[in-house]
Amino acid sequence: MEKRKTNILIADDHPIVAGGIAAILNTADDLNVIGIVDNGQKVLEKVAETTVDLVLLDINMPVMNGIECTKQLKARYPAIKVIVITMYNRKQFIRELFEVGADGCILKSNSGKELLTAIERVISGKTYFDQLNDFIDAPKEFKEFRLSEREIEIIDLIAEGFTSKEIATRLFISEHTVKTHRKNIFQKTNVSDSDELIKWAMNNQLIR
């Protein structure tokens, strides 16, 4: 009897990234990409209507982010495996992933071979956090300015050009909360607007 393929759902709001991941998975005979969605809410909708064995998802997505999505997935469908694929190599995210029950994490900068290895490991019932040494604590400059992990995350998104409303959607918090964070960030770093904040972060080599 032929072994059933592993059904994988990809969740990433960047079409090029999601397409690249799908192309890598399609090279494996035992993996089956059943769909690509662009937010956590759609992940929950998809797994409710079809058989999903593993979800590959980004952390920062609109409507519902990867952390909240993983938390809800594990609460409703504990058998479904979850691997987070992220560009953020900060240990705070790893701590959050452990807390919500993720089965693995891999950086987007890694190779397709690494991704396939992670999938194989997780499907076999193990976890994949092999790259923990590649994750860093908050940069020294952030600690000196006493910025929180949430404020660090918001600085990254401001640098990517997202508005307060868009950041609120991605982080699953209110726009008012984002604006409060922005105000606190400006005060702590002694800047007056987003452009100055980005320059400050770049000068301190905190963003690329």
Number of helices: 10
Number of domains: 2
Low-confidence stretches: none
Q: Give the biggest sheet.
A: 5 strands, parallel
**What is the CATH architecture annotation of the largest domain?**
3-Layer(aba) Sandwich
SSE run: EHEHEHEHEHHHHHH
Keywords:
208 residues; alpha/beta; Rossmann fold; Arc Repressor Mutant, subunit A; 10 helices; 5 strands; 50% helix; elongated
Please provide a written account of the structure.
The structure is a single chain. The chain has 208 residues and is α/β, with parallel strands linked by helices. It has two domains: 6-134, Response regulator (Rossmann fold); 140-203, Winged helix-like DNA-binding domain superfamily/Winged helix DNA-binding domain (Arc Repressor Mutant, subunit A). The protein is 50% helix and 13% strand. It contains ten helices and five strands. The protein has a five-stranded parallel sheet with strand order 2-1-3-4-5, sandwiched between helices. Strand 3 (54-57), helix 3 and strand 4 (81-86) form a beta-alpha-beta unit. The protein is elongated.
